[in-house]
Amino acid sequence: QTVAAMAVGHQHHHQSVLGALETIWRQQGLAGLWRGVGGAVPRVMVGSAAQLATFASAKAWVQKQQWLPEDSWLVALAGG
Fold it and tell me: Which regions does the record annotate with the repeat Solcar (predicted)?
């Protein structure tokens, strides 16, 4: 929730996440809890694939430069 002056689109007024889930369950049933999955899953798949591929490439590049010890957690941090 946000203040009315900053709100964009329709704002739902739930007191908590569990309260929101309960309201959706009562009003729309199981199908309501799954609404939006068809659009969210492909978007998350593409985004995650791009992020993981970029991270793997960057981490390999950092390892190749030999700036840090190969088994150090700093390699993953620098790759990120």
Answer: 1-61
Cβ atoms of residues 78 and 66 within 8 Å: no
Q: Which pLDDT value is given to residue 11? A: 77
Cα separation of 22 and 24, whole Å? 5
Task: Give φ, ψ of 42 to 5 degrees.
Answer: -60, -40
User: What is the band of 1 on the pLDDT scale with cuts at 50, 70, 90?
Assistant: low
Sketch the domain layout of the chain as residue ranges: 21-64
Kindly report the length of the chain. 80
Q: Are 69 and 44 in contact (CB under 8 A)?
A: no
CB atoms within 10 A of CB 68: 15
Task: Give the Cα separation of 42 and 69 in Å (integer).
Answer: 37
Tokens of 41: 């899953």
Pair of tokens at residue 49: 């694939």
